[in-house]
Design a protein that fits this description.
Blueprint (H helix, E strand, L loop, with lengths): L1 E6 L14 H4 L4 H28 L4 E4 L22 H18 L2 E4 L12 H21 L3 E5 L7 H12 L4 H4 L2 E4 L7 H11 L3 E4 H6 L6 H10 L7 E4 L32 E5 L4 H12 L2
Parallel strand pairs: 1-2, 1-8, 2-3, 3-4, 4-5, 5-6, 6-7, 7-8
The chain binds a DNA duplex (15 and 15 nucleotides) through helix 1 and helix 4.
DNA sequence: AGCGGTCAAGTTGAT
DNA sequence: ATCAACTTGACCGCT
């Protein structure tokens, strides 16, 4: 029973999430700024509801929520609390309704904070900003019933064990609701599955296995070995994996950029019979998932 | 409506 | 030194 996951946005279906730039909103009067942000948050809550309906109707079992759901939420100067914005409490109610709706539809929701969220950084201000961002996403995850907040290991800074030590220390600063949702994913530059699996086992964190990243940054583990070890980190929970195909093929100059679609040959044979969520990182979004479903015979 | 410049944030490695 | 890549190009002011 494989659950396919859509990441953040749509290709053809007219459902979109809005955002805002700090430069712009900081030029507005406080009132105009609050109204602008309130309107975006409200629209995004409505878009999330429509996204869930679409997924449920089209055989998509999971949806990754964009980090800009509440744009600029943790910005040092433009940041805000949704409940303080005009209509904010109503928008919170819509997010909570999304959570009930997802549960009723059997949909899984996830979050994936962006590249600036780093718990291994030697720079205290970077860690502090990252913790703040994780707490924001944890609150939104609680509203919407998302069970995963997935981040990468971050940089190595020339000393990977030391960086992982800082990550371990930062974990202790997370709230219960953020810590309970946190997961770590291998990346295509620095942290391989072999780097993160022991850390995840030691700290009781689930490991999000990205097979495309693993193929870009091999570590001696086979796909089968990494899969098996990743599964074991999820306890009784449904494991979360990532899949994509290289834009210009595996023989291209850079295999990292993602293709519009998934080449079925990139789907690991050993995943076929598993009870897992596979987030599909393909530029063609729901169109790519529709094609993949057909090719998997789903 | 369409276009070009711009956008909060970190780190890495290719050029 | 610059730049693209990273889960996602979208926003904004101008014409």
């Amino acid at each position: 029973m494989i659950r396919l996951g859509l990441c953040c946005k749509f290709n053809e279906e007219p459902i979109s999430f809005r955002t805002a730039t700090a430069t712009h909103v900081l030029k507005l009067t406080p009132k105009a700024r609050a109204e602008k942000l309130a309107g975006i948050c409200q629209d995004n809550a409505a878009a999330l509801k429509r996204a869930l309906d679409y997924c449920a109707a089209n055989g998509i079992g999971s949806f990754r929520v964009n980090s800009q759901l509440l744009p600029l939420k943790t910005h040092p100067r433009a940041g805000y609390d949704l409940k303080d914005l005009p209509g904010g409490p109503g928008t919170v109610s819509v997010f909570k309704a999304c959570g009930r709706q997802a549960k009723a539809l059997g949909l899984r929701l996830t979050f994936h904070p962006d590249q600036f969220v780093l718990l291994s950084s030697p720079t205290a201000s970077v860690t502090a900003a990252s913790l703040l961002e994780l707490e924001y996403q944890a609150e939104a995850a609680e509203w919407t019933g998302a069970d995963v907040i997935n981040i990468h290991g971050g940089g190595a800074y020339g000393d990977k064990p030391a960086a992982l030590g800082r990550l371990a220390a930062a974990l202790k600063r997370l709230s219960r609701r953020a810590r309970a949702r946190l997961a770590l994913e291998n990346d295509d530059r620095t942290y391989s599955p072999a780097d993160l699996l022991p850390f995840c086992r030691e700290h009781g964190l689930p490991f999000v296995y990205d097979v495309h990243h693993h193929r870009c940054l091999p570590d001696g583990l086979s796909v089968e070995q990494a899969t098996s070890q990743a599964l074991a980190t999820w306890g009784g929970r449904e494991p979360l994996f990532h899949l994509s195909s290289p834009r210009e093929g595996w023989k291209g100059s850079d295999p990292r950029p993602h293709h519009d679609y998934i080449d079925i040959k990139d789907f690991p044979a050993c995943w076929r019979k598993l009870n897992i969520t596979v987030e599909v990182e393909a530029k063609a979004k729901e169109t790519a998932i529709a094609r993949l479903r057909r090719e998997l015979g789903m």
